[in-house]
């Protein structure tokens, strides 16, 4: 069974084509900086080499067209025709309370994803673009939705209920949902394997740091709290999102700038975060480069981001009454030695010490804390795509069995 995994982020698109008979990745790739002039598309067939294209990818649909063309390309492709793809697994950011586990995609599922656009405006539209593009390019192929929110359904009520009139939860399901669940689940399980301990005995804080960023407190293998909330806007400062701020700022700005709710939502989701502070970019690589050139606002943007991560880690240590391991993952978490060092330097009270030499390693599974560090610091490249492929296979196989039996 060949499964194509589509993972549409707010400004990126990851994909993998996986032969699930042996979980071999036939091809994988990444479209970065979608919507910017310096977009980059990378396609790697069978891990042998990389095809890199630079230019402008105006949206996710254009990126998906390039993905499909690359998979069947005479020189760089790995299949002869798109009909060799047996199923597609889609990462879906927000399922609200409609779904708490993965599900076979039909019209009702698409409608539910659309209903959640108002609370996930950067991601759910991109997810729907991916679904619709695959429908056109792969007609009749079954597709599965794997929701970011599913892993966080184990949060206790005191963690996910907001201190608002309870009627808003009853009427509108206003509560914390959390996101990046597939990534947090995957890297926490890998951390337990690396530490050679049962995950049921560990307290882990996972730091998914990229253009979108979130932390999760994982106790005994279950999510007990996470920084993102009702929408992916809550929590840390991010690439273009403000994260948690005083809610009164919203109404204050609406009055001062004479703007409506849609305009202020645009500011909070697409013009804030490190982009808003630095004035340089939403891409942390660009901001780090600006810091090297002496840009003080770029430095402030990084300092704000690192401070928010650091203080959130501290709150989750309190929530779990301790921590055994802190895991860094995603684009920034896997690659930025500067970010990891800056965050960990303020956590020495936990008996945590970073090894500078090991911290310089990029995109590898590695313990970057010193041997005597009481808290282990681990870098683990996330593999949401493999986790999604496994879920997709399980759903498809079960669906086939159900049809045979009933």
Summed up, what is this model?
The protein is an alpha/beta fold. The protein has helices at residues 60-71, 107-115, 124-137, 157-160, 167-172, 181-195, 248-257, 261-270, 273-278, 284-292, 296-320, 330-335, 337-344, 356-359, 384-405, and strands at residues 2-8, 13-19, 24-32, 39-45, 51-55, 87-92, 103-104, 143-147, 203-209, 213-219, 222-226, 325-329, 366-367, 376-379. The chain has two domains: 2-147, ATPase, nucleotide binding domain (Nucleotidyltransferase, domain 5, 2-Layer Sandwich), CATH 3.30.420; 196-384, ATPase, nucleotide binding domain (Nucleotidyltransferase, domain 5, 2-Layer Sandwich).
Describe the structure.
The protein has 406 residues and is an alpha/beta fold. The chain folds into two domains: 2-147, Nucleotidyltransferase, domain 5 (2-Layer Sandwich); 196-384, ATPase, nucleotide binding domain (Nucleotidyltransferase, domain 5). The protein is 39% helix and 19% strand. It contains 15 helices and 14 strands. The protein has helices at residues 60-71, 107-115, 124-137, 157-160, 167-172, 181-195, 248-257, 261-270, 273-278, 284-292, 296-320, 330-335, 337-344, 356-359, 384-405, and strands at residues 2-8, 13-19, 24-32, 39-45, 51-55, 87-92, 103-104, 143-147, 203-209, 213-219, 222-226, 325-329, 366-367, 376-379. An eight-stranded mixed sheet has the order 5-4-3-2-1-6-8-7, with helices on both faces. Strands 11-10-9-12-14-13 form a six-stranded mixed sheet, sandwiched between helices. Strand 4 and strand 5 (51-55) form a beta hairpin. Helix 1 packs parallel to helix 3, helix 10 packs across helix 11 and helix 11 packs across helix 13. ATP binds at residues 14, 208-212, 283-285, 331-335. Keywords: ATP-binding, Cytoplasm, Kinase, Magnesium, Metal-binding, Nucleotide-binding, Transferase.
